[in-house]
Amino acid sequence: MLKERARIVAGGLYALDLLLVLSAFLLAFWLRNRVLPGLGVVPDRLYPLARYLPLLPVVLGLWALLLPRSGLYGSHRTMSLREEAWEIVRACAVAALLLVLVIFAVRLDDLLLDGDRISRLWILLVVSLACLLLLGRMLLVRLVARYVRLHGYNYRNLLIVGSGRQAREIVDSVGRHRFWGYRVVGVVVDDEAAAHDPLGGHPVLGGLAEIPRIVEEQVVDEVIFTLDRARLSRLEDLLLQLEELGIRVWVVLDLFPHAKARVDVGTLDGIPVMTYSTAPSSELGLLVKRTLDVSISAVLLLLALPAMVTVALAIKLAYGGSVLFRQTRCGLNGRQFTLYKFRTMVEDAEARREDLEHLNEVRGPAFKLSRDPRVTTLGRLLRKFSLDELPQLWNVLRGDMSLVGPRPPIPSEVSRYQRWQRRRLSMRPGLTCLWQVSGRSDLDFDRWMELDLQYIDSWSPLLDLKILARTVPAVLSGRGAS
């Protein structure tokens, strides 16, 4: 009954959210077509609404796809206001990005407006209004739910199983957050000593074997098990009995309390699994990252083609030999690939490196020499403004690299990494990263590693965009280049 009610509420909120997106679509058109021209903000009106209506299924489809994937329609009893608001903002930002990509990829300007541009201000208004309306709906639902729960309604009764640190933390959290809508009806222990030490003043109702009797005699909606690993194997019969009774069960899976990796619970072909990962694992976020990589690198390759031809001719005429420098690098989790750069050194540069190892200016496995005698005069100019790295856009387009990520090391450097340093290989390497906008080659190796790991730990599509925006002035100024 409770689960069915939850599904009905979630479905209703989902339908309401799509209705709000529809309202944002129409309201944005009214503002852009009527209000803003009347105020003199924009000089002209839009095409008739009928020309824009074919975009409505695209807009609704994007939000209909992204909103459920953001986890907005599960139980929000323990989700903070900031977390839910961020999920809404992120879903709208991704929808906006995909909407612009669809408009450009399908050339909807030509199809709908005979070559005229779809109003960019209207697109901004649609996204902004949709985000504001969804945030408003979220806030209203939370205020109503909090008011109802603080007055003793819409509560779910919890039975806590366990007496250790985790059980105490859960009891304390429920007590501090009354608006979650949970009430602890009692505690079940598996230790006679714990029976005389009630948690938070809640009564001890019995031992493990008495749980079926307790949930039949008490009003219990959910049971939370906080037992240690040694006792989990004894839960199967209890779980089956609670399943028969229709009781929702939580099992606290703090199996490795010292692990710092993010923990996700899912299924593999129907088999429950736990995953521990320190690298980003959001499929949607990584899809957005790859979409940005392909679209931006393709555009930049086309725009940079004249400059690349000019650089290639200059290298060939000045020094002869090969125009491109090819080198094996390590990519995602150690995958090896061929990296392409414009040649900035003499032809036998790799053979001469061993003679210069004693001049290395950085500690650790990396090699850096500010006044490397192997670099040509033209090569220094190319390096100063990162023009030598333009061919790596092809590596990005192929999927060997990303626009933003840790720089790809050579295999000999990786073989000398300490174990903790190998974690920088857990993300696809990139053209630029935090080190690029924090001093570039002026950084020492340890700081370089720290920034790469900091990027991996805090990664988001928005962070990539920020780094790309900061990279442009860093490259144009030539700051930190060697």
How would you describe this protein?
- The chain has 482 residues and is α/β, with parallel strands linked by helices.
- The chain is built from 17 helices and eleven strands.
- The strands form four sheets. A five-stranded parallel sheet has the order 3-2-1-4-5, with helices on both faces.
- β1, α7 and β2 form a beta-alpha-beta unit.
- The longest helix has 38 residues.
- The chain starts with a helix and ends in a 5-residue tail after the last helix.
- The model has no long low-confidence stretch (mean pLDDT 80).
Break the fold down into its secondary structure elements and pairings:
Blueprint: H1 2-39, H2 49-52, H3 56-69, H4 81-105, H5 108-113, H6 120-150, E1 156-161, H7 165-176, E2 182-188, E3 204-206, H8 211-217, E4 222-225, H9 229-232, H10 236-245, E5 248-251, E6 262-268, E7 271-277, H11 283-319, E8 324-330, E9 336-342, H12 349-356, H13 377-384, H14 392-398, E10 402-404, H15 411-414, E11 430-432, H16 445-457, H17 461-477
Parallel strand pairs: 1-2, 1-4, 2-3, 4-5, 10-11
Antiparallel strand pairs: 6-7, 8-9
What labels would you give this structure?
482 residues, two-stranded antiparallel sheet, 51% helix, 17 helices, alpha/beta, single chain
Can you give me a brief rundown of this structure?
The protein is of the alpha/beta class and 482 residues long. The chain is built from 17 helices and eleven strands.
Tally of DSSP β-strands: 11
Task: Tell me the quaternary state.
Answer: single chain
Shape summary:
flat
Strand content: 5-15%
Distance linking N and C termini: 68 Å
> Structural class, from secondary structure content?
alpha/beta
Unreliable spans are none
Largest sheet: 5 strands, parallel
User: Approximately how much helix is present in the residues?
Assistant: 40-55%
SS summary, helix count: 17
Question: In what order do the strands lie side by side in the largest sheet?
Answer: 3-2-1-4-5
As a whole number of angstroms, the C-alpha radius of gyration is: 29 Å
Helices and strands, in N-to-C order?
Answer: HHHHHHEHEEHEHHEEEHEEHHHEHEHH
pLDDT averaged residue by residue: 80
